[in-house]
Amino acid sequence: MVNLLKQAQDQLRQAVLQAYQKAVQAGALPQTEGDMPAFVVEMPADSKNGDFAANAAMVWARALRLAPQKIAQALCENISLEDTCFASCESAGPGFLNFRLADSFYQNACQSILKEQDAYGKSDFGAGKKVMVEFVSANPTGPMHMGNARGGALGDCLASVLDAAGYDVTREFYVNDAGNQIEKFANSLNARYLQLYMGEDAIAFPEDGYQGEDIKERAKEFAAVYADSFVNKPEDERKQALVDYVLPRNIQKMKDDLAKYRIFYDNWFLESSLHKNGDVKAVIDMLTRRGLTYEKDGALWYKTGQMMEKILPPRKNADAEPYKDDVLVRANGNPTYFAADIAYHYNKLVTRGFDKAIDVWGADHHGHVARMKGAMLALDIDPDRLDIVLMQLVRLTRNGEVVRMSKRTGKAITLTDLIEEVPIDAARFFFNLREPNSHLEFDMGLAVEQNAQNPVYYVQYAHARICSIFKNLAAEGIALDVAKADLAGLTEPEERALIKHIAGLTNEIIASAQSYDPARMTRYAIETATLFHKFYNACRVKGEEESRMMARLALCKAVQIVIKNVLVMLKIDVPESM
């Protein structure tokens, strides 16, 4: 697997270092003790002055006690670009070193993409480290909402990016099938079931119960199977029977809905298993042995504040209120959700040995991040092994108006409602148009449009357009023959800009994995389509002499591979005609 831009950057960095040694030998620059300070090699946004730039002269100015411009000039005079993919070097401005790519780079880039095909863009950057991405993890007590819709697309695409970057990725859904929400769920089902036979006036609905129509529907389904046979049974038995019947069906409904959304998990992890196998108790005991718990008002408390002081930066205000501690075990003897959550993360990082655990949470959970990282530190786990991706809210719009209700149900829009109204491709692409910590406006009207204003359609159309080029030429008996292509002749500005861009796919995937931001990939796909359309409008393919036509066909094929690889990674359809 080749990383074209990294190869170029590595060559450039080595050439600059060798130029320094040569300049020292020539007496143009002084020798210093030890290694020279690290410098940056990058591709500037504007390639007017060069395709790559290095800031070595400015970084080294203090160590060499010389003006950056003088250092840059000496480096330029002593640099050798032989055996690199660069053609020239010049100094500019305050001491930048600007480099131009050689014709061979563009030729080799096209050849590498054509050779690697479906594998192009993948790398071993992650070195096979075990990473778990846990996302959605909605309570199984009701339908999934819009936050789950964004979290699903974000988490699944992030997992795909990490996989392409060379990590060993596991997708997991944490099922909250224990604790207070399940007790509330049982009480809600119990009331709705009894109301079917005794009337709503006779059976009061719990004040904190789940009011959704789905609870009524599930109670009716239970009654369709068991009729009134549970009406006169003990309440605990009736509630347990209701939960045992409904909960698996709710979980299966989640699996089915997420499958429609093209999300498939490696594991569905049950919170209840942590209680059954003693993991929760074991973690509480560990914290107690470390002196991090205490009893108050009949409950067992965890010294959250003490550990958060170690995780968070010192507070400037000395009079600020201390961080609050958390209950681990209630006065009734039941562990809290926080206790189970600590045990769950211990299970991820210690019991199952993941190198990194990544959680995708709603932004309203931001206060929980330091609490959980502090708990990891309390258990002698490096808190940096736990990363949290905080996701902002989604605002649905149509024709400039905010949309809150489903056309079908008249209720708040759920994940199911969304994917019935909007193509899956658009949903997955749109939810990854912005970085996770940005508020997202999802235009439902635009998502169904079939024109260039719709970004996913725009990208898919570029792929279909390339397929059409090959199909039309095939009808005339013309097929791509790379051996007849003059790839070094791809010198038009539109050709070179496009090649430079597609040569960066591997780097972009790695950057996306490092930043936990799949939006980099949707932006990259849109830019690829834009540059392709510019190339296609400026450079004829058919009608040119054979070597140039074949070279441009080769470039078209390379772009087709890149677009396909990105869309496949994001689990978005790759149409050959539109």
General description of the model:
- With 578 residues, this protein is α/β, with parallel strands linked by helices.
- It is built from 21 helices and 15 strands.
- Strands 7-6-5-11-12 form a five-stranded parallel beta sheet, sandwiched between helices. Strands 1-2-4-3 form a four-stranded antiparallel beta sheet. Strands 8-9-10 form a three-stranded antiparallel beta sheet.
- Helix 6 (180-198) crosses helix 8 and helix 17 (455-475) crosses helix 20 (519-538).
- The longest helix has 26 residues, at 235-260.
- The two termini are 32 Å apart.
Put simply, the count of helices is 21
Helix content: 40-55%
- State the low-pLDDT regions, or none: none
Find the count of extended strands (DSSP E, 2+ residues): 15
**Going across the major beta sheet, what is the strand order?**
7-6-5-11-12
CA-atom Rg in angstroms: 30 Å
Overall shape: flat
Percent strand equals 5-15%
User: Biggest sheet, in brief?
Assistant: 5 strands, parallel
Structural class label: alpha/beta
Distance between the termini: 32 Å
Mean pLDDT: 94
